[in-house]
Amino acid sequence: MLQTPQETPELVDGESVEKTLSIIELISSGGAAGQIIIAILFVLLIVATYIYFERLFAIKAASKIDANFMNQIKDHVSNGKIDSAQMLCAQANSPVSRLIGKGITRIGKPLADINTAIENAGRLEIYNLEKNVSVLATISGAAPMIGFLGTVIGMILSIFEIANSGGQIDIKLLADGLYTAMTTTVAGLIVGIVGYIAYNHLVVKTDKVVYQMEANSLEFLDHLNEPT
C-alpha cells in the first residue's frame, strides 16, 4: 500500500518518527500552478473580508435612529414647523431621515406625489446600502470553481507523470499534482463558504434597514393623511 510523504515514517536514532507537513509546506509542494491559484484565492478572501466589514459598519450606522425621531417629526409637521422638521432630518443623516426629509419637501402636493418621491429616494438608499455586496455573491460562487480548476490542473499533472513514468508509478512523482489538486480545492471551498456566509448576513442586515425605512415612511404618510 502506497503512503503519502507526510505519512512515511523515518528512522531517527533507531526510532520511527512520523513526518508532518505544515500548511506553508503543503502549499509550496503544490507547484507553480497551485501557488498561483492559492494566491488568487487569498486575494479574493481579503477582498471579501474588507467588503463584509465595510458594509457591516455602514449598515449598522444606517440603522441607528433616535426612537423619538418620528414623534418629533409629526409634532413639527402638525404645528406647521416645516423648516424645523427638515433641520431635524438633516441632523439625523440616516436613510430613514433622508426619506422623511424628501417627503417633507413635497408637503402641500398630492399624497401620491409625496409617496412617489419617497419611493424614488428609497431606491437610491437601498442601492447605497447594497453597494459592493454583489461582489461577495460573485466571490462565493467563483472561489470554489477556481479551486476546482486547480484540482483539474493537479490531476492533469498527475496523469502526465503516470504517462511518463514508464510503468513505474512512484508516489513522489505524483506528489506535486496531488498537492495542487487537494490544496486548491480546500482553499476554494473555504473562501466560497466565507463569502456565502458574509453575503447572506449582509442581506439580512440590509433587509432590516429596508423594513425600518418602509415602516417610518408609511407612518409619515399616514400622519399626512390624517384629517386635520
Structure description:
The chain has 228 residues and is mainly α. The chain has one domain. The protein is 77% helix and 4% strand. It has a two-stranded antiparallel ribbon with strand order 1-2. Helix 5 packs antiparallel against helix 6 and helix 7 runs antiparallel to helix 8. The longest helix has 55 residues. It is rod-shaped and about 95 Å long. It is a multi-pass membrane protein. Its main location: membrane. One of its GO terms (cellular component) is plasma membrane.
Task: For the structure shown, list the relevant keywords.
8 helices; 77% helix; 228 residues; 4% strand; disordered N terminus; two-stranded antiparallel sheet; cell membrane; single chain; 2 strands; mainly alpha
Summarize the topology.
Elements: E1 9-12, E2 15-18, H1 23-28, H2 31-63, H3 69-78, H4 82-92, H5 95-105, H6 111-129, H7 133-163, H8 171-225
Antiparallel strand pairs: 1-2
Keywords: Cell membrane, Membrane, Protein transport, Transmembrane, Transmembrane helix, Transport
Membrane topology: Multi-pass membrane protein
Protein name: MotA/TolQ/ExbB proton channel family protein
Q: Quick recap of the structure?
A:
The chain contains 8 helices and 2 strands; from the N terminus they run ββαααααααα.
Q: What is the end-to-end distance?
A: 89 Å
Low-confidence stretches: 1-17
State the helicity in percent bands.
Answer: over 70%
Shape: rod-shaped
Largest sheet, described in full? 2 strands, antiparallel
Q: How many discrete structural domains?
A: 1
- Per DSSP, what share of the residues sits in E-state strands of 2 or more residues? under 5%
Main structural class: mainly alpha
Name the strands of the widest sheet in spatial order.
1-2
- What integer is the average pLDDT? 81
Over the alpha carbons, how many angstroms does the gyration radius reach? Answer: 29 Å
Order of helices and strands, N to C? EEHHHHHHHH
- Beta-strand segment tally: 2
Can you count the helices?
A: 8
